[in-house]
């Protein structure tokens, strides 16, 4: 479970683009790795895992600042497991993909709409819809203001569709804002979306049209959170 320790919490994202034939193997080695972390009581490491429908797995780790990237939090695990066992796990990981990478995103509390409290832990709502709003530098501030106007309309109307807004950072090519919506499943997401569109009415349609006119590119992705592939250190 990831807690939000500050207003604009940053996250280190590690993405593994897993081969279609290797996804079961990848999940098994991920579970074996978590079992080792639990067995040896690895400290100072917490991450959540999401799976995008295209087979990309995201390991999501909260960080306080860029200096956190220099910390080798796995060093105690290496020492307790021994080099051979430790390296064998990551060798198994590497056999599951040809491409992987890292980047930073920051959760923006001012733009996110969760009236009952900003949290990533949406229990019973592991379905995810990611809306990527790519923008050029010349339109970045205008897009931010438009997202804020949409949030304000949601609040005024008492919308039941909640969203979190992230902003791209270090390690990404181009700039984007990312709206993340949680739901029980795809059907629940679609139903809530239809209800929300009706609630916001013409005012909502106008704001979204104005927002889309500012974008350089838009894309959406679907997937699920995988609590069984995440890890929380014991306190």
Structural account:
This protein has 235 residues and is an alpha+beta fold. Helix content is 34%, strand content 32%. It contains 5 helices and 9 strands. The chain has an 8-stranded antiparallel barrel with strand order 1-3-2-8-5-7-6-4. Helix 4 (140-157) packs across helix 5. It is elongated. The model is unreliable at 1-6 (pLDDT under 50).
Question: Main beta sheet: strand number and arrangement?
Answer: 8 strands, antiparallel, barrel
Give average pLDDT, whole number: 93
Helix and strand string, N-terminal first?
EHEEHHEEHEEHEE
The largest beta-sheet arranges its strands as 1-3-2-8-5-7-6-4
Instruction: Write down the Rg.
Output: 19 Å
Percent range of helical residues: 25-40%
- What gap, in angstroms, lies between the N and C termini? 12 Å
Our estimate of the beta-strand percent is 25-35%
Shape: elongated
Low-confidence stretches: 1-6
Q: How many strands appear in the DSSP assignment?
A: 9
Please, how many helices?
Answer: 5
Alpha-beta classification: alpha+beta
